[in-house]
Design goal:
Residues 1-19 form the signal peptide. The protein is mostly helical and 261 residues long. The chain has ten helices and four strands; from the N terminus they run αβααβαααβαβααα. The longest helix has 36 residues, at 211-246. The chain is globular. Bound molecules: 2-acetamido-2-deoxy-beta-D-glucopyranose.
């Protein structure tokens, strides 16, 4: 290969990669004005940004024996931390310890609403909801970290259950679900740091906020498909029975009449 060809490949490959980017991909600074908008819009009102001097939850922490979110719950609600995992998706029913081999979400290993294997590696976490934060191309590690934090927090942190979008008295609501969060407070400085880390990365808001909805729809689609196929087979079988009855060879009678050899 001549030097010229290398040069062409060198120019063409990034262009191809760029060309393959979905049309809704933009830099974070094009999508969000600041960290507050990022935290509040990206997850459809799951989080609300509060000034740093107000109580707010922590998406990440280091002292595994002392989850600081427990104290935040006491400060905000005056109650002890939840004994159950109120949010249900991949979650456990009640928080419990995970082994020392718990992967990415290690801060929660003493008391966790996620199974260690659900959040074993970044790759597994990216595959959880079918579409990931990096579909606009590889993210900088600095930026990706914040998405890992958020996902660990959502999957493993028991106190997210205090911020469900719908409570269990609202099952009649057309949008009722047990996975959606609403206005869980986050500190402004944290959201600003997230925005700063992601400034030059590409992202698409388009589908990210609806990933979970799509998954619900997919589940429904599969169920309807299975029910449909079953109904079709049932129809086919009954018309077969009717046909046999009409042609004077009823299936069940014929079976019974068979002598046992
Ligand atoms: C559930 O939410 C609705 C609407 O916000 C509220 O009116 C109702 O009191 C709540 N029920 C319980 C048991 O918290």
């Amino acid at each position: 290969m001549k030097i010229g060809n290398y040069a062409i490949a060198f120019v063409a490959l990034p262009t191809l990669a760029f060309g393959a980017r979905h049309p809704t991909c933009q830099t974070f600074t094009e999508i969000y004005a600041d960290g507050t908008e990022l935290c509040e819009k990206m997850f459809s009102d799951a989080f609300v940004v509060v000034p740093d001097d107000q109580p707010a939850y922590h998406m990440w922490f280091f002292d595994t024996d002392n989850n600081p979110n427990d104290q935040v719950t006491r400060d905000i609600f005056g109650t002890e931390p939840l004994e159950e995992c109120n949010v249900q998706y991949f979650h456990k029913q009640v928080p419990s310890p995970e082994g020392d081999d718990m992967g990415e979400c290690h801060p929660w290993k003493q008391r966790s609403c996620c199974h260690g294997e659900t959040v074993g590696s970044v790759e597994e976490m990216k595959a959880l909801y079918g579409s990931s934060w990096d579909r606009c191309g590889t993210m900088s590690e600095a930026c990706e970290r914040f998405f890992v934090f958020e996902l660990c927090f959502y999957e493993c942190e028991p106190s997210v259950g205090l911020f469900r979008r719908f409570n269990d008295s609202q099952t009649d609501h057309p949008d009722f679900n047990t996975w959606q969060l609403y206005q869980m407070p986050m500190k402004k400085s944290y959201c600003d740091a997230w925005f700063d880390a992601c400034k030059n990365d590409f992202f698409s808001e388009e589908r990210f906020s609806t990933i979970k909805e799509e998954k619900e729809v997919n589940k429904l689609g599969v169920s309807l498909g299975v029910i449909g196929a079953f109904a079709f087979l049932l129809c086919l079988f009954s018309s077969f029975l009717v046909h046999r009855e009409r042609s004077g060879k009823p299936v069940f009678v014929a079976e019974k009449a068979n002598p046992v050899a």
